[in-house]
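Tutorial, part two.
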Amino acid sequence: NPTDEIFNITLPFEDNFTVRVVNLLGQEIYRQSAAKNLSIDVRTWQQGLYFIEFINQTNADKVIKKVVVN
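Running the prediction step on this input gives:
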């Protein structure tokens, strides 16, 4: 982290997840279901800080991480 092109995510879990990205204003700019691996192209995103939410589709557990786009 930071990135300016594509970042790859490998989820260390067996359950399916929803990956949701929000900007600092809380606006959702990306949402995708994922099982294990996911690539996100950020070349069209504005520079700044984003929050990535990993939401377990089975039990609704949530993990939030930050990513910086240059």
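The mean pLDDT is 90. In part three we will examine how such features are distributed along the chain.
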